[in-house]
């Protein structure tokens, strides 16, 4: 097994799927010759040719339309949106077209499409490069939303996403691309979409997170362990559909929970998780479920982004609040 | 400040004058008598179906419907130039092209009635669903075309929009992608003068829409859209270029005699009677009928027969649409994903248990 960064694991997933299925096409801005601004597609054009891995003109709506059109001809496009904020330019293709293709056509067409996009803060990027926009996509019927927190999951989830016969919005946290390595098996494997992962077991409180916040939560859990508080940390991995069963099973044990998200507080994944907990596990709760999230502002400029995003200390405070209720 | 905007000289191509006389014999397409008659039959048929659809809509037996009368020359002529395996990416008014390309009429009625079976285009019929988002079909067409090219097919893709659609960003992005990837695409703008009520003059300072092709580096053609033969010839030629990797933008000058849609639009609020009657003089059916009659290829009897045929067929198809079992919410839920996820299964069970009353 090789020690890979998340970006290498993503590259590996793309290579395996391009090799396995001739209908897989990889395209976007600078993904061909350059191999992507983060090198996610490095070497792929050389290996698979310009018909399978290619640069597009700089126009996100055009990229999305190209992908939807290719879907109707039996292809499985993996399109890259260079930075998440650019997705506003392609909202119609994703939320107005790909998400509805199966329904509108009563199954005559479908969109086995993956939209890969980097997101996430803490890297001093320019405006509209780092926003957490998953809330917009979990509210769009017909799309699945996936957000890995480590190299192993990134590879397995991306392979699963490419093989999925419905559109998958695949969010890659910028800070996780190269921040650590992990053992990643060489061959083909999938991590199922729609299944969360208990990344740390504990009996006092359930901490639900995804993306980089999994690591923030784990750091908080380590701090809290020193105080004798045992956190159970759940990595959602898929944000739509949410694996509520894993969450409920944990809450039955801990009777307390918080949800941690890097996104702004209102109407996002955390709100949805809490709504589902209310529906399924309210009688197992000893305290209200709290959210630890960014404030409801636009994404903070680089100067204050570290303060703006949830920190281990804020997560730990959230846990204490839930325990003291 | 004497800047002179560069002019792109484009004269609308025309084969027949409004009186049905041949004005450009060199552009006369090579169509045999049976094909010429078929063009006429299709235009008459479509006019009857359109009139019937308008009244069905008034009776509440159809939902959203966008009338087509006046645009038959462009619609029928352009589709007639295509191969059965060429693809059509339509806007919402483009039902005639879809139906003449093989999409069953009763399904177009179901689509209008908001029934999902309307969208279940039969296998082997090479069309996408009518697009509601103006211009979205223009960015999808290059994807369809790239797919055909990668599969090694010698076929083209035709995307339709209107003069309003030409203002969308997707209009340019679609043409630009088609050009950049050398794709077999034909973009047709049916310029009927109005985007609902907004006149063409308010859409753009560009003198023609066809000239917008110049910026994308593709062919631009202006054609008299009321002349079915001129449209046919323009598309036939564009098809040859498309197969060689050179896309074309065709602007067809046309007019819709009726309202934008049957959902309350009143064209007298933004068009004059004089303008309407001026365009009625250019009616594509009148002109082509005169041409065919002069050649002895069309008669009043044939016209009557076609009208009867169309009426009977439309009646049959609306009946078929009305007899189609209604949709259900559980059925709708199951059409969202290949495998319905757990949260939707729960919602489906709730509806299936009759709780969704």
TrEMBL record, chain B:
Cite the record's note on assembly.
Answer: Heterodimer of an alpha and a beta chain.
Instruction: Indicate whether Protein transport appears among the record's keywords.
Output: no
Protein name, as recorded: Pyruvate dehydrogenase E1 component subunit alpha
User: What role does this protein play?
Assistant: The pyruvate dehydrogenase complex catalyzes the overall conversion of pyruvate to acetyl-CoA and CO(2). It contains multiple copies of three enzymatic components: pyruvate dehydrogenase (E1), dihydrolipoamide acetyltransferase (E2) and lipoamide dehydrogenase (E3).
Domain annotation Dehydrogenase E1 component: ranges: 40-327
Report if keyword Oxidoreductase is assigned: yes
From which residue to which does any coiled coil extend? none
- What is this organism's lineage? Bacteria, Bacillati, Bacillota, Bacilli, Bacillales
Tree of life domain? Bacteria
Question: Pfam families recorded for this chain?
Answer: E1_dh
Annotated GO biological process: branched-chain amino acid catabolic process
Q: Which UniProt keywords apply?
A: Oxidoreductase, Pyruvate, Thiamine pyrophosphate
- EC number(s) stated in the UniProt entry for this protein: 1.2.4.1
- Give GO terms: molecular function aspect only: pyruvate dehydrogenase (acetyl-transferring) activity
Organism annotation: Candidatus Reconcilbacillus cellulovorans
């Amino acid at each position: 097994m090789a020690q890979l960064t998340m970006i290498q694991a993503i590259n590996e997933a793309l290579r395996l799927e391009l090799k396995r299925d001739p209908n897989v096409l990889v395209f976007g801005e600078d993904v061909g010759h350059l191999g992507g601004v983060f090198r996610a597609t490095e070497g792929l054009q050389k290996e698979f040719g310009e018909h399978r891995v290619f640069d597009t003109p700089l126009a996100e709506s055009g990229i999305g339309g190209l992908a939807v059109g290719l879907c109707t001809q039996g292809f499985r496009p993996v399109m890259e949106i260079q930075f998440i904020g650019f997705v506003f330019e392609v909202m119609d293709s994703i939320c107005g077209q790909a998400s509805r293709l199966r329904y509108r056509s009563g199954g005559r067409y479908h969109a086995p499409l993956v939209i890969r996009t980097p997101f996430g803060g803490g890297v001093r990027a320019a405006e509209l490069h780092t926003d957490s926009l998953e809330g917009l996509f979990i509210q769009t019927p017909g799309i699945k939303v996936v957000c890995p927190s480590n190299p192993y999951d990134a590879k397995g989830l991306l392979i699963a996403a490419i093989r999925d016969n419905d559109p998958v919005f695949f969010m890659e946290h910028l800070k996780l691309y190269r921040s650590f390595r992990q053992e990643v098996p060489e061959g083909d494997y999938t991590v199922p979409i729609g299944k969360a992962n208990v990344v740390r077991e504990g009996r006092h409180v359930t901490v639900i997170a995804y993306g980089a916040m999994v690591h923030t939560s784990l750091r908080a859990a380590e701090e809290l362990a020193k105080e004798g508080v045992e956190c159970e940390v759940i990595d959602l991995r898929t944000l739509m559909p949410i694996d509520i069963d894993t969450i409920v099973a944990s809450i039955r044990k801990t009777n307390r929970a918080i949800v941690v998200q890097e996104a702004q507080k209102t109407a996002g994944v955390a709100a949805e998780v809490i709504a589902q907990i209310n529906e399924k596990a309210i009688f197992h709760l000893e305290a209200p479920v709290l959210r630890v999230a960014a404030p409801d502002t636009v994404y903070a400029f680089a100067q204050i982004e570290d303060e703006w995003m949830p920190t281990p200390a804020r997560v730990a405070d959230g846990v204490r609040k839930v325990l003291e209720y | 400040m004497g800047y002179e905007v560069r002019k792109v000289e484009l004269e609308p191509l025309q084969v027949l004058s409004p009186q049905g006389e041949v004005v450009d014999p060199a552009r006369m397409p090579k169509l045999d008598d049976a094909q010429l008659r078929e063009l006429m039959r299709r235009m008459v048929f479509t006019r009857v179906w359109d009139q019937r659809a308008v009244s069905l809509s008034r009776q509440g037996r159809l939902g959203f419907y966008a009338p087509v009368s006046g645009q038959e020359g462009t619609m029928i002529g352009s589709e007639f130039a295509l191969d059965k395996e060429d693809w059509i990416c339509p806007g919402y008014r483009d039902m005639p092209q879809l139906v003449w390309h093989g999409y069953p009429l009763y399904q177009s009625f179901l689509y209008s009635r908001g029934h999902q079976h309307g969208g279940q285009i039969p296998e082997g019929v090479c069309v996408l669903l009518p697009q509601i988002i103006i211009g979205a079909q223009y960015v999808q067409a290059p994807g369809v075309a790239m797919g055909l090219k990668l599969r090694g097919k010698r076929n083209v893709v035709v995307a339709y929009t209107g003069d309003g659609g030409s203002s969308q960003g997707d209009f340019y992005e679609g043409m630009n992608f088609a050009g950049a990837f050398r794709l077999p695409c034909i973009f047709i703008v049916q310029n009927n003068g109005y985007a609902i009520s907004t006149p063409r003059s308010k859409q753009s300072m560009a003198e023609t829409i066809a000239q917008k092709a110049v910026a994308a580096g593709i062919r631009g053609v202006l054609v008299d859209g009321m002349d079915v033969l001129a449209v046919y010839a323009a598309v036939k030629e564009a098809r040859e270029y498309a197969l060689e990797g050179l896309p074309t933008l065709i602007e067809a000058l046309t007019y819709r005699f009726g309202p934008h849609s049957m959902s309350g639009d009143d064209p007298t609020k933004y068009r004059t009677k004089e303008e309407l009657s001026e365009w009625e003089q250019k009616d594509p059916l009148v002109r082509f009928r005169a041409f065919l009659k002069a050649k002895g290829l069309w008669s009043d009897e044939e016209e009557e027969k076609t009208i009867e045929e169309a009426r009977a067929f439309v009646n049959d198809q609306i009946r078929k649409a009305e007899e189609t079992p209604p949709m259900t919410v559980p059925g709708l839920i199951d059409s969202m994903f290949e495998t319905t996820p757990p949260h939707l299964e729960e919602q489906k069970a709730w509806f299936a248990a009759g709780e969704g009353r």
